Amino acid sequence: MVKMRQGKSKLKPFRFLFTVALIFLVSAPVFLFKGVEAQSTGFFEKSFAWDYDGTHWTWNLSIPVALYDAYKAVPVGTRTRDGPGGYGFLTTTQDYYVRALADKLTKTTGDLGYGSFDQVSFVLAFVQSLPYTSDSVTTQRDEYPRFPIETLVDDGGDCEDTSVLF
After folding, report:
1. Which pLDDT score, from 0 to 100, does residue 86 have?
2. pLDDT tens digit string along 48-82?
3. Please, are residues 161 and 138 in contact by the beta-carbon 8 Å criterion?
4. 90 exposed, middle or buried (CB, 10 Å; 0-12, 13-18, 19+)?
5. C-alpha R_g of the chain
6. Alpha helix ranges (H) inside 33-95
7. Beta partners for 60?
């Protein structure tokens, strides 16, 4: 029995050091990389302001860079292959972010007690607050239809871009 006690006592420093090392390995990323997380480089931080029904609205949106990049990667030929009649392809109503924005707009108008006319008008005021930007100026193309996420991140668009966002 004495030998077993001695064996256990030799393991105590090892267990202690192992435990300390394990705690360091688990907690090091929290302390060492905290500044990287705080930079939030994975999002575009956008601010939108508009007026409706005598109230000035300001919303800040954090739009994922990866989502924007995915839409931006869709070739222009795919966007324009069916002409203006094919712009329905750009309406991304099932996109999680677009859906969340639509839900936020709907909840806000519902909380305000707006009827359907004012709900639509509120959303239209939000969309029309975005500046008109010509495709030839912003993309050096005659026609560049944008997905809703692109219109938000790019701070506007032309007629079809804001129509698709709406």
Report:
1. 87
2. 999 999 999 999 999 999 999 999 999 999 999 89
3. no
4. buried
5. 26
6. 34-39, 65-72, 76-80
7. 47
Give the integer Cα–Cα distance in Å for 15 and 33: 27
For residue 150, the tally of other CB atoms under 10 A from its CB is 21
DSSP classification of residue 3: H
CA 56 to chain centre: 23
For the full predicted model, state whether its pTM sits above 0.85.
Answer: no
* Other CB atoms within 10 Å distance of the CB of residue 122: 21
Residue 24 pLDDT greater than 80, yes or no: no
Asked whether the beta carbons of 105 and 36 are under 8 A apart, the reply is no
Please tell me the distance from the alpha carbon of residue 2 to that of residue 73, in angstroms, as a whole number. 71
Residues for the chain: how many in total? 166
